[in-house]
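User: Can you model how zinc ion sits in this protein?
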Amino acid sequence: MERKEYEMTQADLDKILEACKPVPYMVVGGVPPRSPQENANAAWAELGSRMGFDHMTVLPTGRGIRCFYAVPNDSQFRCTVCGQIGTVGRCCGLDTREPLNDLARAEVEREHKT
Ligand SMILES: [Zn+2]
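Assistant: Here's the modeled complex, given as structure tokens:
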């Protein structure tokens, strides 16, 4: 799939920069803190699920720190009748789709509210 260009907000950037900061190494209750790399990954994953891209595919664009390329993460459904996986999931009827990711679940939730 092709990468699309995204631009994060200043607030999102702050969150990621904050996550990249080194954490003081203190073992609390026998659990070591997460490394900055893990924190940064978690921050990117959160941003990706909110903005709809795959956070493992992020590349810099060279046009400012808030701009980046990533592969869009479309909603994925599985048809419960034929097992087909796709972005629509209505191949065998209106109620045969099962959401496979956060985007798809959000789509289903929106539908149930309206
Ligand atoms: Zn089907």
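A couple of observations from the model: Residues 79, 81-82, 84, 91-92 surround zinc ion (CB under 6 Å). The beta strands are 4-7, 59-60, 67-70, 77-79, 85-86, 97-99.
User: Helpful, thanks.
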